[in-house]
Batch of 2 targets.
Target 1
Amino acid sequence: MASGSLDFYYEFASPYSYLAACRIAALAELADVRVHWKPFLLGPIFAAQGYASSPFNVYPLKGAHMWRDLDRLAAAQRLPPITKPATFPANGLLAARVAMHLNDACRPSFTRALFSAEFAQGRDISDRETIRQVLAGLGHFWDEVIADAESEVNKARLRAQTEEAQARGVFGAPTFFTTDGELFWGNDRLEMALEHARSLARKG
Protein backbone atom coordinates (compact mmCIF):
# COMPACT_ATOMS: atom_id res chain seq x y z
CA MET A 1 0.00 0.00 0.00
CA ALA A 2 1.33 3.42 -0.94
CA SER A 3 1.91 5.80 1.94
CA GLY A 4 -0.13 8.98 2.24
CA SER A 5 1.18 12.54 2.30
CA LEU A 6 0.33 15.57 4.43
CA ASP A 7 1.56 19.17 4.34
CA PHE A 8 1.93 20.63 7.84
CA TYR A 9 2.04 24.43 7.91
CA TYR A 10 3.12 25.79 11.28
CA GLU A 11 4.09 29.11 12.84
CA PHE A 12 6.53 29.34 15.73
CA ALA A 13 4.40 31.91 17.55
CA SER A 14 1.44 29.51 17.56
CA PRO A 15 0.96 27.39 20.70
CA TYR A 16 -1.47 25.11 18.88
CA SER A 17 1.26 24.48 16.30
CA TYR A 18 3.46 23.45 19.22
CA LEU A 19 0.93 20.87 20.37
CA ALA A 20 0.56 19.51 16.84
CA ALA A 21 4.33 19.35 16.34
CA CYS A 22 4.70 17.28 19.51
CA ARG A 23 2.33 14.56 18.34
CA ILE A 24 2.22 14.54 14.57
CA ALA A 25 5.21 12.25 13.97
CA ALA A 26 3.91 9.33 16.03
CA LEU A 27 0.39 9.64 14.65
CA ALA A 28 1.64 9.92 11.07
CA GLU A 29 3.77 6.80 11.47
CA LEU A 30 0.76 4.83 12.67
CA ALA A 31 -1.27 6.12 9.72
CA ASP A 32 1.56 5.47 7.23
CA VAL A 33 1.50 9.11 6.18
CA ARG A 34 4.56 11.15 5.26
CA VAL A 35 4.55 14.66 6.73
CA HIS A 36 6.04 17.67 4.96
CA TRP A 37 6.97 20.22 7.64
CA LYS A 38 6.35 23.73 6.30
CA PRO A 39 7.27 26.69 8.51
CA PHE A 40 5.67 29.97 7.49
CA LEU A 41 4.81 33.41 8.89
CA LEU A 42 1.29 34.27 9.99
CA GLY A 43 1.99 38.00 10.31
CA PRO A 44 1.52 38.84 6.61
CA ILE A 45 -1.61 36.66 6.46
CA PHE A 46 -3.12 38.31 9.55
CA ALA A 47 -2.28 41.72 8.09
CA ALA A 48 -4.16 40.82 4.91
CA GLN A 49 -7.14 39.90 7.11
CA GLY A 50 -7.01 43.31 8.80
CA TYR A 51 -5.41 42.19 12.07
CA ALA A 52 -2.51 44.16 13.53
CA SER A 53 -1.92 41.39 16.09
CA SER A 54 -3.10 37.89 16.88
CA PRO A 55 -6.90 37.52 17.08
CA PHE A 56 -6.29 36.13 20.57
CA ASN A 57 -4.99 39.58 21.53
CA VAL A 58 -7.68 41.45 19.64
CA TYR A 59 -10.39 39.54 21.53
CA PRO A 60 -9.23 39.27 25.17
CA LEU A 61 -11.93 36.78 26.21
CA LYS A 62 -10.91 34.51 23.36
CA GLY A 63 -7.28 34.88 24.39
CA ALA A 64 -7.98 34.04 28.03
CA HIS A 65 -9.86 30.93 26.98
CA MET A 66 -7.02 29.91 24.68
CA TRP A 67 -4.46 29.77 27.49
CA ARG A 68 -6.81 27.72 29.68
CA ASP A 69 -7.54 25.43 26.75
CA LEU A 70 -3.82 25.00 26.15
CA ASP A 71 -3.27 24.03 29.78
CA ARG A 72 -5.84 21.26 29.44
CA LEU A 73 -4.47 20.02 26.13
CA ALA A 74 -0.85 20.04 27.32
CA ALA A 75 -1.87 17.97 30.36
CA ALA A 76 -3.75 15.54 28.12
CA GLN A 77 -0.63 15.14 25.96
CA ARG A 78 1.52 14.72 29.08
CA LEU A 79 3.53 17.82 28.20
CA PRO A 80 4.89 20.35 30.70
CA PRO A 81 2.50 23.16 31.66
CA ILE A 82 2.23 25.84 28.99
CA THR A 83 4.31 28.96 29.62
CA LYS A 84 2.97 32.11 28.00
CA PRO A 85 5.77 34.03 26.25
CA ALA A 86 6.55 37.44 27.72
CA THR A 87 5.61 38.87 24.34
CA PHE A 88 2.76 37.18 22.51
CA PRO A 89 2.84 36.49 19.69
CA ALA A 90 6.58 35.97 19.80
CA ASN A 91 8.75 37.08 16.91
CA GLY A 92 9.49 33.80 15.14
CA LEU A 93 11.19 35.23 12.06
CA LEU A 94 14.69 33.89 12.74
CA ALA A 95 13.25 30.59 13.97
CA ALA A 96 11.28 30.16 10.76
CA ARG A 97 14.31 31.04 8.64
CA VAL A 98 16.40 28.43 10.43
CA ALA A 99 13.68 25.77 10.09
CA MET A 100 13.32 26.66 6.42
CA HIS A 101 17.06 26.22 5.88
CA LEU A 102 17.34 22.86 7.64
CA ASN A 103 16.73 19.77 5.55
CA ASP A 104 13.71 17.50 5.87
CA ALA A 105 15.52 15.17 8.26
CA CYS A 106 16.62 17.90 10.68
CA ARG A 107 13.62 20.27 10.52
CA PRO A 108 11.23 18.26 12.75
CA SER A 109 13.69 17.84 15.64
CA PHE A 110 14.66 21.53 15.56
CA THR A 111 11.01 22.55 15.39
CA ARG A 112 10.02 20.42 18.39
CA ALA A 113 13.03 21.54 20.44
CA LEU A 114 12.44 25.22 19.77
CA PHE A 115 8.72 24.96 20.46
CA SER A 116 9.58 23.28 23.78
CA ALA A 117 12.03 26.05 24.64
CA GLU A 118 9.30 28.60 23.95
CA PHE A 119 6.15 27.11 25.42
CA ALA A 120 7.52 24.69 28.04
CA GLN A 121 10.56 26.65 29.24
CA GLY A 122 9.36 30.19 28.57
CA ARG A 123 12.39 31.18 26.52
CA ASP A 124 12.44 34.02 23.99
CA ILE A 125 12.66 32.54 20.49
CA SER A 126 13.46 35.94 18.99
CA ASP A 127 16.73 35.84 20.97
CA ARG A 128 19.58 34.56 18.82
CA GLU A 129 21.07 32.88 21.90
CA THR A 130 17.99 30.70 22.27
CA ILE A 131 18.28 29.60 18.65
CA ARG A 132 22.00 29.01 19.08
CA GLN A 133 21.55 26.82 22.15
CA VAL A 134 18.80 24.74 20.56
CA LEU A 135 20.89 24.15 17.45
CA ALA A 136 23.98 23.31 19.51
CA GLY A 137 21.96 20.89 21.63
CA LEU A 138 20.97 19.06 18.45
CA GLY A 139 24.59 18.84 17.29
CA HIS A 140 24.49 21.53 14.60
CA PHE A 141 27.26 23.99 13.82
CA TRP A 142 24.96 26.79 14.88
CA ASP A 143 26.97 29.70 13.49
CA GLU A 144 26.99 28.21 10.00
CA VAL A 145 23.30 27.29 10.16
CA ILE A 146 22.23 30.78 11.26
CA ALA A 147 24.43 32.46 8.65
CA ASP A 148 22.94 30.29 5.90
CA ALA A 149 19.43 30.82 7.27
CA GLU A 150 19.88 34.58 6.97
CA SER A 151 21.09 34.43 3.38
CA GLU A 152 18.99 36.23 0.80
CA VAL A 153 18.26 32.93 -0.93
CA ASN A 154 16.80 31.39 2.22
CA LYS A 155 14.87 34.53 3.13
CA ALA A 156 13.28 34.36 -0.30
CA ARG A 157 12.38 30.69 0.25
CA LEU A 158 10.53 31.52 3.46
CA ARG A 159 8.70 34.41 1.79
CA ALA A 160 7.70 32.10 -1.04
CA GLN A 161 6.44 29.44 1.38
CA THR A 162 4.40 32.06 3.27
CA GLU A 163 2.93 33.28 -0.02
CA GLU A 164 2.22 29.68 -0.98
CA ALA A 165 0.34 29.15 2.29
CA GLN A 166 -1.70 32.29 1.72
CA ALA A 167 -2.49 31.31 -1.86
CA ARG A 168 -3.71 27.89 -0.65
CA GLY A 169 -6.12 29.54 1.76
CA VAL A 170 -4.24 29.26 5.05
CA PHE A 171 -5.70 31.66 7.63
CA GLY A 172 -4.26 30.25 10.87
CA ALA A 173 -1.90 27.67 12.31
CA PRO A 174 -1.51 24.80 12.32
CA THR A 175 -3.01 23.97 8.95
CA PHE A 176 -2.81 20.64 7.15
CA PHE A 177 -3.34 19.85 3.47
CA THR A 178 -3.88 16.48 1.85
CA THR A 179 -2.88 15.75 -1.72
CA ASP A 180 -6.38 16.46 -3.03
CA GLY A 181 -6.20 20.01 -1.68
CA GLU A 182 -8.41 19.51 1.37
CA LEU A 183 -7.61 21.96 4.17
CA PHE A 184 -7.78 20.97 7.84
CA TRP A 185 -7.25 23.73 10.38
CA GLY A 186 -6.20 23.31 13.97
CA ASN A 187 -4.46 20.84 16.23
CA ASP A 188 -7.80 19.16 16.89
CA ARG A 189 -8.17 18.30 13.19
CA LEU A 190 -4.86 16.46 12.93
CA GLU A 191 -6.34 12.98 13.25
CA MET A 192 -8.99 13.79 10.65
CA ALA A 193 -6.34 15.09 8.26
CA LEU A 194 -4.20 11.99 8.69
CA GLU A 195 -7.16 9.69 8.16
CA HIS A 196 -8.09 11.53 4.95
CA ALA A 197 -4.50 11.35 3.73
CA ARG A 198 -4.45 7.61 4.43
CA SER A 199 -7.75 7.06 2.64
CA LEU A 200 -6.45 8.86 -0.45
CA ALA A 201 -3.38 6.63 -0.50
CA ARG A 202 -5.56 3.54 -0.31
CA LYS A 203 -7.62 4.73 -3.25
CA GLY A 204 -4.54 5.63 -5.25
Note: The mean pLDDT is 95.
Target 2
Amino acid sequence: MDAVLWIVLGVVLAVAEIFTATLFLIMFAVGAFAAAGAAALGAPVAVQAVVFAAVSALTVLAARPVIQRHKQSAMESGDTAFGIEAIEGSTALVLEQVDSDQGMVKIDGEVWSARAYDATQVLAPGERVQVIQVKGAVALVWRDVATPSELPEAER
Protein backbone atom coordinates (compact mmCIF):
# COMPACT_ATOMS: atom_id res chain seq x y z
CA MET A 1 0.00 0.00 0.00
CA ASP A 2 2.86 2.39 0.80
CA ALA A 3 4.35 1.84 -2.65
CA VAL A 4 1.11 2.95 -4.29
CA LEU A 5 1.07 6.16 -2.25
CA TRP A 6 4.66 6.95 -3.26
CA ILE A 7 3.86 6.26 -6.91
CA VAL A 8 0.82 8.55 -6.73
CA LEU A 9 2.98 11.27 -5.14
CA GLY A 10 5.61 10.79 -7.86
CA VAL A 11 3.01 11.06 -10.63
CA VAL A 12 1.46 14.16 -9.03
CA LEU A 13 4.89 15.80 -8.80
CA ALA A 14 5.73 14.86 -12.40
CA VAL A 15 2.42 16.28 -13.66
CA ALA A 16 2.92 19.44 -11.60
CA GLU A 17 6.35 19.81 -13.26
CA ILE A 18 4.62 20.06 -16.62
CA PHE A 19 2.89 23.22 -15.45
CA THR A 20 5.91 24.82 -13.78
CA ALA A 21 8.65 23.93 -16.29
CA THR A 22 11.35 24.58 -13.70
CA LEU A 23 12.83 21.06 -13.63
CA PHE A 24 12.65 21.19 -9.86
CA LEU A 25 9.60 19.09 -8.99
CA ILE A 26 10.69 16.28 -11.29
CA MET A 27 13.66 15.69 -8.98
CA PHE A 28 11.28 15.09 -6.08
CA ALA A 29 9.23 12.81 -8.30
CA VAL A 30 12.35 10.69 -8.82
CA GLY A 31 12.76 10.57 -5.04
CA ALA A 32 9.14 9.47 -4.64
CA PHE A 33 9.61 6.68 -7.19
CA ALA A 34 12.75 5.53 -5.35
CA ALA A 35 10.79 5.49 -2.09
CA ALA A 36 8.10 3.44 -3.86
CA GLY A 37 10.82 0.93 -4.76
CA ALA A 38 11.94 0.79 -1.14
CA ALA A 39 8.33 0.28 -0.03
CA ALA A 40 7.90 -2.52 -2.57
CA LEU A 41 10.96 -4.24 -1.07
CA GLY A 42 9.30 -4.08 2.38
CA ALA A 43 11.26 -1.20 3.94
CA PRO A 44 9.62 0.52 6.94
CA VAL A 45 8.07 3.98 6.49
CA ALA A 46 11.04 5.71 8.15
CA VAL A 47 13.46 4.13 5.66
CA GLN A 48 11.13 5.07 2.79
CA ALA A 49 11.17 8.70 3.95
CA VAL A 50 14.99 8.65 4.19
CA VAL A 51 15.23 7.15 0.68
CA PHE A 52 12.86 9.84 -0.63
CA ALA A 53 14.87 12.65 0.99
CA ALA A 54 18.27 11.24 0.02
CA VAL A 55 17.41 10.50 -3.62
CA SER A 56 15.67 13.86 -4.02
CA ALA A 57 18.66 15.71 -2.54
CA LEU A 58 21.16 13.75 -4.64
CA THR A 59 19.13 14.40 -7.79
CA VAL A 60 19.03 18.13 -7.06
CA LEU A 61 22.77 18.22 -6.28
CA ALA A 62 23.64 16.22 -9.41
CA ALA A 63 21.34 18.06 -11.81
CA ARG A 64 21.88 21.65 -10.63
CA PRO A 65 25.43 22.09 -11.99
CA VAL A 66 24.37 20.65 -15.35
CA ILE A 67 21.37 22.98 -15.55
CA GLN A 68 23.50 25.99 -14.55
CA ARG A 69 26.10 25.10 -17.17
CA HIS A 70 23.46 24.92 -19.91
CA LYS A 71 21.57 28.00 -18.74
CA GLN A 72 23.51 30.72 -20.50
CA SER A 73 22.39 33.94 -22.01
CA ALA A 74 22.77 34.46 -25.74
CA MET A 75 25.63 36.88 -25.06
CA GLU A 76 27.58 34.22 -23.13
CA SER A 77 26.94 31.45 -25.66
CA GLY A 78 27.63 33.61 -28.71
CA ASP A 79 24.15 33.08 -30.14
CA THR A 80 22.05 35.88 -31.58
CA ALA A 81 20.02 37.50 -28.82
CA PHE A 82 16.25 37.51 -29.17
CA GLY A 83 13.26 38.55 -27.10
CA ILE A 84 14.00 40.52 -23.97
CA GLU A 85 17.74 39.84 -24.22
CA ALA A 86 17.78 41.65 -27.56
CA ILE A 87 15.94 44.66 -26.16
CA GLU A 88 17.99 45.14 -23.01
CA GLY A 89 20.98 47.31 -23.82
CA SER A 90 19.48 48.76 -26.99
CA THR A 91 18.70 52.41 -27.60
CA ALA A 92 15.21 53.85 -27.74
CA LEU A 93 13.56 57.11 -28.69
CA VAL A 94 11.30 58.81 -26.14
CA LEU A 95 7.85 59.42 -27.65
CA GLU A 96 6.04 60.67 -24.55
CA GLN A 97 7.70 62.08 -21.44
CA VAL A 98 9.22 59.29 -19.36
CA ASP A 99 9.45 59.57 -15.60
CA SER A 100 9.14 57.17 -12.68
CA ASP A 101 5.39 56.72 -13.25
CA GLN A 102 4.73 56.74 -16.99
CA GLY A 103 6.09 57.17 -20.49
CA MET A 104 6.37 55.73 -23.99
CA VAL A 105 9.44 54.88 -26.04
CA LYS A 106 10.10 53.41 -29.45
CA ILE A 107 12.46 50.44 -29.50
CA ASP A 108 13.39 49.02 -32.90
CA GLY A 109 10.16 50.34 -34.42
CA GLU A 110 7.92 49.06 -31.61
CA VAL A 111 6.19 51.29 -29.06
CA TRP A 112 6.78 50.27 -25.44
CA SER A 113 5.60 51.57 -22.09
CA ALA A 114 8.58 52.91 -20.23
CA ARG A 115 9.65 54.14 -16.81
CA ALA A 116 12.82 55.93 -15.81
CA TYR A 117 15.31 53.52 -14.27
CA ASP A 118 16.43 56.39 -12.04
CA ALA A 119 13.31 57.82 -10.39
CA THR A 120 14.84 61.30 -10.43
CA GLN A 121 15.20 61.42 -14.22
CA VAL A 122 12.55 63.00 -16.42
CA LEU A 123 13.13 62.25 -20.11
CA ALA A 124 11.64 64.53 -22.74
CA PRO A 125 10.19 63.45 -26.10
CA GLY A 126 12.91 63.17 -28.74
CA GLU A 127 15.66 62.13 -26.31
CA ARG A 128 17.67 58.95 -26.86
CA VAL A 129 17.66 56.53 -23.96
CA GLN A 130 19.29 53.21 -23.15
CA VAL A 131 17.07 50.25 -22.20
CA ILE A 132 18.52 48.98 -18.92
CA GLN A 133 15.98 46.30 -18.06
CA VAL A 134 12.59 45.00 -19.13
CA LYS A 135 10.02 44.13 -16.46
CA GLY A 136 6.93 42.58 -17.98
CA ALA A 137 5.85 44.94 -20.76
CA VAL A 138 7.65 47.97 -19.33
CA ALA A 139 11.12 49.07 -20.39
CA LEU A 140 13.22 50.68 -17.68
CA VAL A 141 15.34 53.30 -19.42
CA TRP A 142 18.27 55.61 -18.67
CA ARG A 143 19.32 58.80 -20.43
CA ASP A 144 21.72 57.88 -23.24
CA VAL A 145 24.99 59.80 -23.22
CA ALA A 146 25.47 59.61 -27.01
CA THR A 147 25.46 62.95 -28.74
CA PRO A 148 23.44 63.38 -31.95
CA SER A 149 26.63 63.34 -34.05
CA GLU A 150 27.43 59.83 -32.72
CA LEU A 151 24.07 58.44 -33.85
CA PRO A 152 23.57 56.80 -37.25
CA GLU A 153 22.02 59.12 -39.86
CA ALA A 154 18.71 57.20 -39.83
CA GLU A 155 18.29 57.76 -36.08
CA ARG A 156 18.98 61.53 -35.92
Note: The longest helix spans residues 45-70.
